[in-house]
Fold this sequence. Notes:
By secondary structure, the chain is α+β, with helices and mostly antiparallel strands. It has four helices and five strands. 38% of the residues lie in helices and 30% in strands. α2 runs antiparallel to α3 and α3 packs antiparallel against α4. It is globular, with a radius of gyration of 15 Å.
Amino acid sequence: MAVQLSTVARKAVDHVCPVPHTPEAVSVMRGRVRAVLVDWGLSPDVTMDALLVVSELLTNALVHALPPATLRLSWVRAEEGRALRIEVTDAGRALPASQPDAPDEHGRGIAIVSALSARYGIRVHTGGITRWADLLTV
Length: 138
């Protein structure tokens, strides 16, 4: 029965939700994402990786971008199988300038996202900027 639930879950409709522009938004959204991924039958290991990627992408949007922000979870095809796509879109008009002299507590997010995802990227469009990452779920 668990296999059937997992198969049904992977056909689930995308999960899209607005991100409140508040200090507690990352924590609130992590809880919401955890519930969705458990409902979709994702393994605990992939869920933990996804929560870390969500935290990094949301923190970036809340600290460096303009509201509003939106989080989207969806399923995409990858060469290795299926992948969970995590996207955070904000109303930013351009990519932020790099900050080579940033304090030690900043600037590691993209390295974390890169390490945990099969691929990641940035799309600049008329609605703002979307940062995304695909996590393999095989």
